[in-house]
Amino acid sequence: MQMNTYQHILHAKAKGKKLFAVLLDPDKTPVNKAESLISSCVDAKVDLIFVGGSLVVSTHLEELVQNIKKETDIPVVLFPGSPNQITPFADALLYLSLISGRNPELLIGQHVISAPSVKKSGLEIMSTGYMLIDGGAPTTVSYISNANPIPNDKNEIAVCTALAGEMLGMKLIYMDAGSGAKLPITESMISAVSSHIDIPLIVGGGIKNPEKAYLNCQAGANMVVVGNAIEKDQNLITEIGAAIHASHVPNMHA
To answer: Which structural domains are found in the chain, ordered by start?
Structure first.
């Protein structure tokens, strides 16, 4: 029996296998450019393709997802910045609750509005505690969310926030420095959070080279997400993919 997306993530975590997700923003990924990116993802053995962005003013999100599904069996996971960024052609949806902020709309408000259409979509829903970490510069997500990020040197706040998310029943914790962040999340914070939670930890934002991706995995990230960097240099997909997949850390308790 084939595993669903979340079971696949849990299985990888149990085996100490690190996962690589490439984030495609429909606003920055024209459909005619997508074929080349998808081909690179296949060659690099990318584990998941995330689709979404903070704004998504383009109208081809559904077409982009359909194109990806046509070209590859890599699971496509929606990473929505708003409730209208949903298409039933994807495999799963990160149902994001901004647990690091105090904006009630992004904690639960938009979810109440979107719940009927999300349920009707038939997508696999993965409730995700989304934590915005200060990346050293204002980012689109911090502006749109109107929420203060967690300071990048306050590990204890990150740990307590992640723990709260886990105890509230979130299936995943996603720590994000935001697209185009100047400073990626520190290995120290990743290690602190990872050592206190049992659910999978996703880390993204400001990862610009294979070395940082590798170090994030060694620190305890179960999945590394790269988006902005590969928009500038597509070759990084192969290089970062190799670094992440080389960072296999056998779980002695599995």
So the answer is: 5-245 (3.20.20.390)
